[in-house]
Amino acid sequence: MAMILLMAPYSDDVVLTVKSGSWWYMWQLQDATIWTRLSAWLPYSIHQIAIWFLITEARRERPRYIFGLHSFNVWALGINSFFIVLHIFQTKLFYDGLAQDTHEATSMGSVVLMLFLIFLMENRRRGMFFGKSVKFMSNVGDTVRRYHGYYFSWAVVYVFWYHPVEMTQGHLAGFAYMMLLLLQSSLFFTRFHTNRYWTVFLETLFVIHGAVVAWYIMDRGDNGPWSMFLFGGMAVFLITQMHGLGLSRNGKLAIALPMLAVMATFYINFPDTLVGVTRLPMINYIGTLLMFLIVWLLIRGGRLVQALRSDPDKAVV
Predict the structure, then answer these.
(1) What is residue 274's predicted lDDT score, i.e. its pLDDT?
(2) What average pLDDT does the segment 273-289 reach?
(3) Which residue in 171, 148, 151, 159 sits closest to 108, CA to CA?
(4) Alpha-carbon distance 35 to 41, whole Å?
(5) What is the pLDDT of residue 95?
(6) Of the candidates 22, 40, 43, 39, the residue with the CA atom closest to the CA atom of residue 105
(7) Three-state DSSP class for 74?
(8) Distance of CA 147 to CAs 51, 102, 238, Å?
C-alpha cells in the first residue's frame, strides 16, 4: 500500500473511456492496444497458473494443518508479493487491467459467488440460521470445502488484476482488501487459514468495503445504498456468521444488542430505507441455495460421467 501511494499518480497522462451504459467502468483506456492488453493478461495468467499449481502440489502432499508455514506457503507468499509489486509497475507503465476486455459484473460477481460458497462450506460447523445447520446442504458443503481453493484463488487473483491501481478511496480500500485475501490464499493448510476470527473478519470486511464504496460513489444525501450494505451485512452477521465464533450466550448478546440498537436508531430516523436491510440477507440466502443446487448438479454429473466410464451398462445417477 505504501508503494501504491509513493508511485502515484497513475492516470494523469492517459485518456480514459467515455461513460456509456449503467455498468460503465471508468478506469479503462480509451485507445487500448494489444501491448497494453497483454501487459495485464499475461502476468494475470502466470499468476493464476502458479497459484493453482501450488494448490495441486499441496493437495498431493496431504500435509497437516500447522501453526507455521509449509514450503508451498512460502512460495505462495513470494509469488503473490511479486505479482502485487508487478501490477503496481504494470499500471504505472501501461495502465490497462482486465476490465478492458471483461464486464464489470464479473469482478463483483466472482467475489459474491465466493461468499455463497463460504456459507455452504461453513454450514455444518456454524449453521446457516442462528447456529442451526441446513442438513441437506451439509454433504455439498463438504465437497466445497475440499476443492474451494481453486475457485477462491481464481476469484481473488482475477479481481486483483481486473482493476488498474488507482488513488480513489474505493480503489485503495479494494486493493487493501485484495491483499488481505491474497495473504489468506497463501496460508492454505495452516492454522492461520482456518482461524475463525480471521475468516469472519475477511467475510465482514466485504460488507464494510461495499458500504464505503457506496457512500463515496452515490449521492451523499441518499442513505439507501450504503445502509443496505452495512446494516444488511450486520443482519447476516447476527443471523449466521456470529454463531461460528464459539461465543457464549452472554457473549453473543454483548455483541448483538449494541448492533441492534445502532440499526434501530438509524431506521427510526430514516424509515424510508428500512426495506433495504432485508435485501442483502435475501440475496445472500437465496444465492447460497442456488449455489447449492449448481454444485449438487455438478457433483451428480461428475458421478454419472465416472459411472459411465467404469461400467456404461450399470451407470446410475
Answers:
(1) 87
(2) 91
(3) 159
(4) 10
(5) 92
(6) 22
(7) helix
(8) 14, 26, 28
| Percent of all residues in the chain with a pLDDT value above 90, rounded to a whole number | 73
Terminal-residue alpha carbon distance, the chain: 51
Q: Tell me what pLDDT residue 316 has.
A: 53
Residue 144 phi, psi dihedral angles, 5° rounding: -60, -40
270, three cell numbers:
430514516
Residues 6+ apart with CB under 8 A from 235: 263, 277, 278, 280, 281
Whole-model pTM over 0.85: yes
The C-alpha angle with vertex 225 and arms to 224 and 227, in degrees rounded to 5, equals 70
Check pLDDT > 80 for residue 249.
Answer: yes
Assess whether pLDDT exceeds 90 at residue 304.
Answer: no
Query: What distances in angstroms separate CA 72 from CA 45, 175, 186, 253, one per listed residue?
Result: 19, 24, 8, 41
pLDDT of residue 218: 64
- Is the predicted pLDDT of residue 152 greater than 90, yes or no? yes
For residues 108 and 207, the answer to whether their CB atoms sit within 8 Å is no
128, containing H or E segment: none
Q: Read off the C-alpha cell for 60.
A: 498431493
Residue 95 phi/psi, 5-degree rounding, is 75, -35
Residues 49, 44: Cα–Cα separation, whole Å: 9
- Neighbouring C-alpha atoms within 13 Å toward the C-beta of 210: 21
Nearest by Cα to 87 from 159, 31, 181:
159
What mean pLDDT is predicted for residues 161-174? 92
Q: Looking at 62-191, which runs of residues are DSSP E strands?
A: none
The residue assigned the cell 514450503 is: 71
User: Could you give the CA distance from residue 151 to residue 174 in angstroms, rounded to a whole number?
Assistant: 19
- Angle among Cα 268, 215, 217 to the nearest 5 degrees reads 140
